[in-house]
Design goal:
330 residues, alpha/beta, Rossmann fold, 9-stranded mixed beta sheet, 14 helices, 15% strand, globular
Amino acid sequence: MVRPDDTPPTRVRRPGRRRRWPRVLAAALALLVAVTLFGAYGWQPAEDGRAFRSPFLAQAGSRYADTPIAAFHYVKAGSGSPVILLSPGGTSVIGWKDQLPALARDHTVYVVDLPGQGYTRLKDPGFAYDLDAMAAAVGSFMDAVGVRRAALAGNSWSGGWALAFAQRHPARVSRLALLDATGLDLPGTWMWESLKLPVVGELAVKLSSGRSAVESLAEGMMVNKERVTAQLVDEWWAPMTFHENLRATYLLERRLDWGPTERALPATRTPVLVLWGEQDTVQPVERARRFAELLPDARLEILKGCGHAPQLDCPEPVNRHLRAFFAASG
């Protein structure tokens, strides 16, 4: 028999204790959203690359061509028929460091940063960062340096920009070299596709502007890791910290429509060299073969042991192919 004195005490439940955790969770989620939105649209990482003094540019000599669109940063060497190398998307003139002296033996070589790339200073606040705008920028630079007609080359995004310009202005392009280029209406890797998402793209680009992230990016693109030197990483990284270049990266990923360039390939009469790294993890080598199938005047060269940036990864064969291809330009 249980006596009254043996009755266990009744637990007193405080009103609201059960209802408190949803409020805490909601507050935590609200804080997370606020921090994420601030990171995407309010915070800007430091432009640490502004303090970098480029050994390559000290030797090659920076120049600027002033236009209403931008003050185009470029380097120039050699004499002869003009060749214009467009800085690979997301980097600068350093992307063609090994081709500048090699091609300058026979040509006047210009290596130029288009808007949102390298050290070019954008002047047009309404610049669209779409395919029309990037193609128009190529023509604006050519006009500014007094080049009516030239051979063009581009790698990755800049290959697509060079292709778009050649399709719009065939009389101004004597020959076209596409190195692991965009230009086909196909999706990119998940990393690049994610930049199309609002908030995610802004935040991801800002968080990837650190030197270690750039080093990992370079190593991921190249097969021959010994070529990813500390000096190359510094040169690659410095302009990637500039706020306008960060903004350009996610805007270009969202606005570049390669449907028109692919549809125009069968009517593109410019002689084209399709030069591709066999181990490209960004633009798979099957895309090189598709370019070659659709272009009426294309030469296909696939380089074994090379990745997405073959001009940096495998400069010797790239130089050999480019010199032979451009020999007929004029």
